[in-house]
Structure prediction request, 255 residues.
Amino acid sequence: MNTKGGRTNTMPKSAREKIKEQQAAARARDRRKRMVTYVTAGVVAVAAVGAGWWYSAMNSQSEQAAAQLAPVAIQPDGSIAMAQAGVSSPVVDIYEDFQCPACQELERVSGPTFKNLALEGKAKVVYHPITIFSQEPTRSNSLRAANAARCITDGKQWMAFHDLLFRNQPVETETGFTPDQLKEWGKEAGVTAPDFDACVTGEKNRAAQDAYSQRVIADQKIDHTPTVKLNGTEIDNGVVFSPRQLRDEITKAAK
Prediction:
């Protein structure tokens, strides 16, 4: 007898294997059916709106990030401002959670656009790392990651660490962003703060991060991440995840 997931399993091994084989075959048939459906639908769609499809694809294509960054400054409240000297508007506020999968996707798709616009002097980009989750283990994962980011005192090092956190984001159902992982990524990001390891292990900034998150969520009425605002007004997600439209909207605001 064997138990799995709190349930007793008394089915003979050979029978279980046979059922698994049948289930696998059924899934394969379903995939083939779906593929035929998608291909058929795709042919119809292309025939009907080929130009529209191409326009959409071009809008969703990520930009190539420049080799350099605009100056990055860590603010006293824990936010991070990226802008060329003298550029104070338009202001793009990015509210993100390091454990949020949609934020990870935003960074992958539109992260280069935000960085490029700041480098070009066309926007002041402000990152607000918050912890929006209330359930575990996502809440603690987020707090550990944000605490570690707060342990960094150099702006460019912070940005390199920020990008590594999203690149290595754990799944929401598992404990991740462990102290050992965070310290290793700190080395990879070139973090030079002498107390970084101790700050990460001791979660020195956890309480400050939690308080900051609650205040920002309440003040800005944040009910989802990512939330991106342009001069205080939320940008539609359809635009946020379309780099070309995102660039157009922000550059129009700069004129």
User: Anything to note?
Assistant: The CA atoms of residues 35 and 41 lie 10 Å apart. The longest strand covers residues 91-96.
